[in-house]
Amino acid sequence: VQELVDNFMFAFRFLTADSFFPVLQREIAVGSAFEGWSPREKDIVYCFLVPLEPPHGHAFYLELSTLGEMPVRNFYIRVELACTCTREQLPGEMLCLLHHPEQELRSNGGHSLLNTLCTESYLDVQKTARWFHQLVKAAWVFLPQSSQYSLKMLPSSRSCKFQVTTNRQQKLMIELMFGVQQDNSDIFVSSQSTEAIFTPSTMWSESFAVAEVKFFRHVARHAPRDSFHLRCLQLFAHI
């Protein structure tokens, strides 16, 4: 699974090079499937968190939501254009989105992230999920696994889910979530669904999944031999 997703990410970066879409960072394997205690052993979903960084000429700002009382904190990701005029312009480099005339930008193929994956000035989870959905389908033809495996896209409004069936009829369920890192911490605002009945498409929930991965690795290193703590976690999750 890790090798397959690595290949996907390599293809994603090739397809989005020199664009105004978010810059995709190295994926992080998160969740119980990688920790070894998935509560549903026969229907395991391999989850990855893909950190997003702003593209050329853009900046991300996190705004804490004040809508109601939630079990987790929720944020909005405001997208703003950033001036790049002070940088030394290299031949063929993209123009400054903030200060160059719109007609000149259009003639040079410039499209702001605000016009593609945002609702008003905020990064939209559902639009980003559809963009990932399209990326997976476009990248699949470049992957070496595509000649032997089959791909099936699965419905999801806040993440990118798909199923890969190997030549041995093994089905691998993979989910790509995405988010923005808070400063230099292990905390992200992510596309992960909340327990709320209705979550606006511009709302991103605070996720500790990456911090949890590091915590469980620490526990695994220090757990006594033949410890049954993973079985306890499975039991708790079932309950």
UniProtKB/TrEMBL annotation:
Q: Which residues form a coiled coil?
A: none
GO cellular component terms, alphabetically, are:
membrane
Highest taxon of the lineage: Eukaryota
This protein's name:
IPIL1 protein
Source organism of this protein record? Psophia crepitans
Which gene underlies this protein?
A: Itpripl1_2
